[in-house]
Amino acid sequence: MQLIFILEQVLNGLLVGSLYLLIALGLSLIFSLGGIVNLAHGAFYAIGAYLTVALADHIGFGGAFLAAPALVALLGLVIERFLLRRFYRADPILSLLLTFGLAMVAEQTLRMVFGAAPVPFSIPQELRGQVLIGDFIYSRYRLLILAVSAAAVLGLWLLLSRTAFGRVVRAGVQNPDMVAALGISLKPYMSAVVAIAVGLAALAGVMTAPISGVHPAMGAEILTFAFVVVVIGGLGSFWGVIAAAFIVGVVRGLAAYFYPPATEASVYLLMVLVLLLRPRGLFGERIQKFE
Amino acid sequence: MSMTRRGILAASALGLAAPSISYGQSDVIRLGHLTPRTGFLGPLGEYAVQAATLAGEEINAAGGINGKRLEILFEDSVNPQTGSAKAERFVQRDRVAAIVGEINSATALAIAQVVTRERVLFINTGANSDTLRGSDCQRFMFHVEGQNSMYVKTVGRALVAGGLVRGKKSYALTADYAFGHDLLRVARRFLTENGGTISGEDLIPTDLTDFSPFLLKIRQARPDLVVANLAGAQITNFLKQYSEFGLQFPVAGFGFDTALAWGAGQGNFLGTWPVMWHHLIQAPSAQTFVRAFTAKYNRPPENQAWGDYLAVKLMARAMTETRGTDGIKIVEYFEGEGRVDILKGREGYFRKRDHQLMQEAYAITALPAREVRNRWDIFRSGPAVPGPDEPLDAIAATAEENACTFR
């Protein structure tokens, strides 16, 4: 009997992992190509959630689902063009300070505009309900999240591995000087990568808004987890991040089952273990410019 | 900038010479307001700050305190370490006459230690732990906020009446910090004394946002009652996800703040919860406060706003009555157990034995979705507890349950 319960936690962990995934992938992309640790990544997730609440009254959840990530991607373009771009080759501490500052500005702006109290938002009536598989009950809405995440990840993978755009991005990750020597400017690619990455974070925000409190600090809450996922998965590794997101989800679920006070701590413990045994992360590649 | 006595003299002299510069310090009474503005209790801190601001404005509009203007300084208390440092700065640098606020029980204890050392008054407006009124009680600390025992006994009565305690098993989710541990202890005592059992109890990290693993565990345990000893943002997340998973076990909370239910959204509020105050209380002074707050901030006040509004008003009143800001005199004034209007049906008083405000509380129950008319009126309130023919301290911890000796 207990085995079924544990299996239930494992499955749930996999589903929860899919949410971390969308944020962690973007974080990893921006770091791999631009060398910037984007501490403001969680802010885009929060802005995505708030935009959903603001837009849903006018264009419905479906409309907000499409519009919010697109708007946040646009915002990302602007921030890349006028701020991030100045820091690709600079001392990493500068971009850390910049994005840390941006995250605080964003959180405080949300607090000023929407207030500190959580903003009410619910799952749309037509998406509510539960699915029962044997004795395993699950929220229909969360299965939808899983499907959307899977589609987004697949799309991103196809973009990176099957298109000319993806080839340049991958080359830029490995050896930007060589790409430049071939006469290709990485700037427009970097803009596109930032837009995609923050768009994915916003997508995660849109999907979380109905099931989690929408409040100004929500970005900071998720960012740490996303970082842990990237560190465990290994920098620059697409599949590493995916594997790590699922592992983190499952470890968290098992901790909740066996020793609840460690639900969140278990994830950090896992990170420490990985760093001790495999400092590059599970699937981390050797990236020349970071060696 | 620290003000010496000589500095004050110089400043007043300057003030006389050039009255347009500013108030000299002697024309102002300062209160320090400390409360979490960020983190998992941040949503409540905002109400606290707004309400204290409103109270300050009303006091000044009515002529201030003993002819002096009241100035309230606001700080984010963040955590026990920062809260303690800021309390110290309020006292030593800003020379505040008293400190008001706080929500986190661990931080309230840290502030209490500072005010005891500095002999300055502190009115706690949001920290619930019984230990703050028991083993950790301090002569310079008073509590407008109800204690955990009051919350548990209030909602407990409703649960006992509803047949959810005797012979029934509960599953408790508890916030993993000072407040939660204290509440779990009090809740366990109440449930066992009334013939119930706790079949499962999980400590929930305060930064946890996803309750799905615990919802699955609850479903496996099939309890008769789910007990939420949660705090801050946890409550909003719990409500949203409990309704997402469609679990049908009755829910009761032993700690609660209305703003967190407002923030959950349509159709997500369920169960029975305790509050010290809510915006539907019909007492005239309560409704005057609701109107003033709503006019200023465009939303009704909730229990946290009430606590900070009341605390500032009580402090101003004590300073007026004692004709000064002397900490000892104010302590003695409050210990006189004089009855005052606390924006409820029945007047309240600070109990001399532990400095807890003796007051009515309410068990509120979520309205079914189809009966909800607007964003705010999402619950119906049970009668005030204790009832009109009971003593006001009937729901507070007894001396045996929670002994306090002031040092």
Automatic annotation (TrEMBL), chain A:
The keyword Transmembrane helix applies. The chain crosses the membrane at residues 20-47, 59-79, 143-160, 189-211, 223-251, 257-277. This is Branched-chain amino acid ABC transporter permease. Its main location: membrane. PANTHER family: ABC TRANSPORTER ATP-BINDING PROTEIN, BRANCHED-CHAIN AMINO ACID TRANSPORT SYSTEM PERMEASE PROTEIN LIVH. It is found in: Cell membrane. Belongs to the binding-protein-dependent transport system permease family. LivHM subfamily. Pfam families: BPD_transp_2. It comes from Roseococcus pinisoli. Keywords: Amino-acid transport, Cell membrane, Membrane, Transmembrane, Transmembrane helix, Transport. The lineage of its organism: Bacteria, Pseudomonadati, Pseudomonadota, Alphaproteobacteria, Acetobacterales. It is a multi-pass membrane protein. It comes from the Bacteria.
UniProtKB/TrEMBL annotation, chain B:
Pfam families: Peripla_BP_6. Keywords: Amino-acid transport, Signal, Transport. The keyword Transport applies. It comes from the Bacteria. InterPro entries: BCAA_transport (IPR051010), Leu-bd (IPR028081), Peripla_BP_I (IPR028082). Residues 29-364 form the Leucine-binding protein domain. Belongs to the leucine-binding protein family. This is Amino acid ABC transporter substrate-binding protein.
